Amino acid sequence: MDRSQKADAVASLNEVFNEVGVVVVTRNLGMTVGQSTDLREKIRDAGASYKVAKNRLAKLALKGTPYEGLEEYLSGPTALAWSTDPVAAAKAAVEYAKTNDKLEIVGGSMGGQLLDEAGVKALASMPSLDELRGKLVGLINAPATKIAQVVNAPAAKLARVFGAYGAKEAA
Hints:
This protein is an alpha+beta fold. Helices cover 58% and strands 16% of the residues.
């Protein structure tokens, strides 16, 4: 990588760090290419991104962003996962780490809040933004459904009474 490519990589990462909601630092402990590809697919499916970046370049890119505290986690063979949804990257990385012992969660940050490994795992156990939206729609929709049932109930009861009287007279 020459100097201009390094500058482009730092600028690109800095832009990412200024836009995302969470960054998770992972350590690769000898994953195969197939395992790495599988991890990238799972993270991409969750709506997050995953990148192996040189630690020196990542440390330069962290300067001036809310994620400056992550510098202490950047040593050894690390990679970064990030997403705008505060839960997606953490959830995907932790789920993959449960099934593959060659991926280790080192730590992360949500905005300016630095998270250790336990903090990232706690964040991953929270419902995602889409799950919360679904629950909220369900809560809002439930009273409307009940109101419609209450309004329609007298008419249904009246129809059953008329049907019973009709059946009684026919007999």
